[in-house]
Design goal:
Length: 398
Amino acid sequence: MATIKFLLQSKSNPANIYIRLIDGRKVDVKTKTNLIINPLDWSESKQRPKNLKDVDLKNLDFELQELKTKLLNYYNNNLDDEINLQWLKNFINPSNDEIPKLLVAYFDFYLEERKNDLNHRTVLKIKVVQNKLKSLEKEKKKSYLLKDVNVKFKKEFENYNIEKGYSKNTIANNLKEIKAICLHARKRGLVISSELDEIKTKQEKAISVYLTFEDLEKIENTDFKIEEQQDARDWLLISCYTGQRISDFMRFKKEMVRTVSGKQLIEFTQQKTGKKMTLPLHPKVTAILNRREGHFPKKMTDPKYNVLIKSICKKSGLLDEVFGGKNDQETNRKVFKEYKKYELVTSHIGRRSFATNFYGTIPTSLLISATGHSTEKMFLNYIGKSSSDQALELANYF
């Protein structure tokens, strides 16, 4: 039975990670991969990075395990081949003559190769970053290669986007996308900068505008005569008590609801993540459904919903001034200042309200399960919680 091992052959930083394929006495070949690591971060006994709490090292470990699985499968399916050093090198670095080396062009290659894995929203987000790169290249009068994505490139990209009025969080997210593209290229055997791992992105604490339970009570108790306002009001309440994106809750139907042990649950698949979700319905949601004979409100478009919920919150008396960001139609950038609360209400506020209102009363792991966030760090950043906030939350239990 074949076994696969990873090892380092250098103490220099960075060091190439080597892969070794062994099958009894008939096969024993070794070559370097396209993956690198600081030797101080490598566990020789476990043949993997030491600190898997570090995001970059965790991603590297995932790439190693993925490479190991692919090689083992490829070997088992090609036992008639002559297994030698060149065979292994060809597996690690297949012919890449057709793969683009230019950064912008590689975006198209990446999107084509992953077209069955990425949803529409993710594709749009990646294309936005690609268009920013095209604009940067036009201004700099140069084309970036994949191997040019280094610390210097990071500064150029950041300065360009700051001049254009983009927020630090937007720039950080863009750099994450670019870094992911480069890591994909490295898997395909292309040369990328040894400084790629030094490109770190830091998110600023989110400005969390949300609807409190008191706000929700005001909205619930306000009388609306027009049917579409009633529909929008009920959708807003449903979103605040389920924590889902508009792309998901606006698809809710009576047929998705079932009763288990006297509790009503709704089952659906999140459009953005593809995750299959089963959520218990809050009593506020079941009350809405009971009033509507088990049916959800009428579906409406995102723009119409966004307009209606602002007017609903205004009529419900959400007139306090709060600090937040609102899009300027001329510059298409967010302007941060004091606004009346109802002005900052958008379709996303239900999800943020759910996460913020129930944080500290429902275990965080269950909240993450409901919202679909990938990690606790992402969830806490989403609701604007810092390490100090967490310490104070813990102090409440003492």
